[in-house]
Amino acid sequence: MKHFNLKRHFHVVIFCTMLAIFLFTGMPAFAQNNVPRNTPAAQPVVAQTPASPQFSPASIPAKTRLMEETLPNGFRIIIQERPGTGIVGTELLVKVGLMQEMEMYAGITSLIQSLLLTSKTAASPKTFQEAAESDGCLLHSSASPDYAVLNMVATPDIFRNNLKRLASTIKTPDFEQKALDEQKEEQTYNIEGNKSAFQMINEIFLNQFYRYHPYRQPVYGFKNTVNRMKIEEIQKFYNENYSANRMTLAIVGDVNAPETMDLCKKIFADLPRQKNQTVDIPWEPVGAEKKLYLETNSELAWVFVGFPAPDIKSPDYPKMKVLETLLGDGLSSRLFIELREKEGLAYELSSTYPQLEGPSHMILYIVTNGKGLSKSRKKMFDEINKLKKWKISQEELDATKRKLLGKYLLDNETASSQAHNLAYYTALGLGHNFNEVLLRRMQDVTVDDVQNMARKYFENYTVLEIQPSQDPEMFAR
């Protein structure tokens, strides 16, 4: 039995303690007890980050050697050393998603991501996933509205061999009919019923909100589009969109950066380049309201309120993120305090604000009972209108910033998550360190900024109400 070595893991204990302090003190003033009001904040040294008395990123890892290069074929590589960690996180990000699929091929990227894991190479009878996992490597693939990823976590001794497997797989994927049939069956199952209530209602909301924009589509597509996919269409879509100049590879961990860069150049230099086709789809938000009655034995009711929101590249994004966090994110948010703690209306409530390259959205939602639906909706709009009418206090703004810092620390805890951020922001052309740039920009948000964002974006809203009903004629499918 292994025992915890306090001396060896002392830095971990210190990190967790500091994080707990940040998260606790990140609560609004009216939710804190016995917290000194005038205690000066610590001033830790942060590499290349201006100090702030109220929002200092104390636990951002110190800078180590980073190498970045774009190959002649357009393939981008970022390598960040984290010596002594004993782990390597790798992410291959491909800029392909709903904008490339359109409705005709809805769900094809998700299919391809699954098929890559089951692809075989000439060097082994095993699939990519079987071979990697037999080495002790963790492998994951996924699709999202703007990009697709292959994520790999390995120890340094097996990293190089599995990176070569990754390169071989994306250069010459083996899409077999049997594997396609199996993945179509699994994806159809997920489309038809393997979804939470939130996922189903969110899809209805997005279809209403985006109307003709591709963002209205779920990333796993529709049953009819998935079922009619053929091997030839899969291969054609892959050849046109999974090109070197759409790919970004990020590696973070216990590696030697120059040696790893040389290996990457060798195994990825011959990936083909394709001409990028820019898809520009104009979209204007149009407010709408919709009520649905669902057949259910439950008394639960849902209210979704959504607003247009700035994309990740917009200068308004960090300001809007502060506003969203303050209003609906977590137990210390205004909606939670007012609707759950004070009124007892909500079984569940929260907010979402996805990072999108195209037009984004912010959703506030509440789960209540049928009798409390009207009051819940009114209270939600009361809180929204307060932010438009009155400025928040500096103390509440500082608490929200500390909460965002705590989330940043948690979201950047692993080599895998750090690799994702490097790949994602580089692929968008924002720079590999944009995550820290965002943090600094959130630090600069003022009380005036919060009110201006509420007045600018909290106008053209879309509302979706889901109510229980026992009347079959009122069911909305």
Topology:
Layout (H helix, E strand, L loop, with lengths): L9 H16 L40 E5 L5 E6 L6 E7 L3 H4 L6 H10 L2 E2 L2 E4 H7 L3 E6 L4 E7 L1 H16 L5 H16 L4 H14 L12 H5 L3 H11 L5 E7 L3 H12 L19 E8 L4 E10 L7 H12 L5 H9 L5 E5 L7 E10 L3 H17 L4 H18 L3 H13 L6 H10 L3 H11 L4 E8 L8
Parallel strand pairs: 2-8, 9-13
Antiparallel strand pairs: 1-2, 3-7, 3-8, 4-5, 6-7, 10-12, 10-13, 11-12
Could you explain how this protein is built, in words?
With 477 residues, the chain is α+β, with helices and mostly antiparallel strands. It folds into 2 domains: 66-268, Metalloenzyme, LuxS/M16 peptidase-like (Cytochrome Bc1 Complex, Chain A, domain 1, 2-Layer Sandwich); 288-474, Cytochrome Bc1 Complex, Chain A, domain 1. The chain has 17 helices and 13 strands. The protein has helices at residues 10-25, 98-101, 108-117, 128-134, 156-171, 177-192, 197-210, 223-227, 231-241, 257-268, 317-328, 334-342, 373-389, 394-411, 415-427, 434-443, 447-457; strands at 66-70, 76-81, 88-94, 120-121, 124-127, 138-143, 148-154, 247-253, 288-295, 300-309, 348-352, 360-369, 462-469. The strands form 3 sheets. Strands 1-2-8-3-7-6 form a 6-stranded mixed β-sheet, with helices on both faces. Helix 11 packs across helix 16. The chain is globular. The model is unreliable at 1-55 and 472-477 (pLDDT under 50).
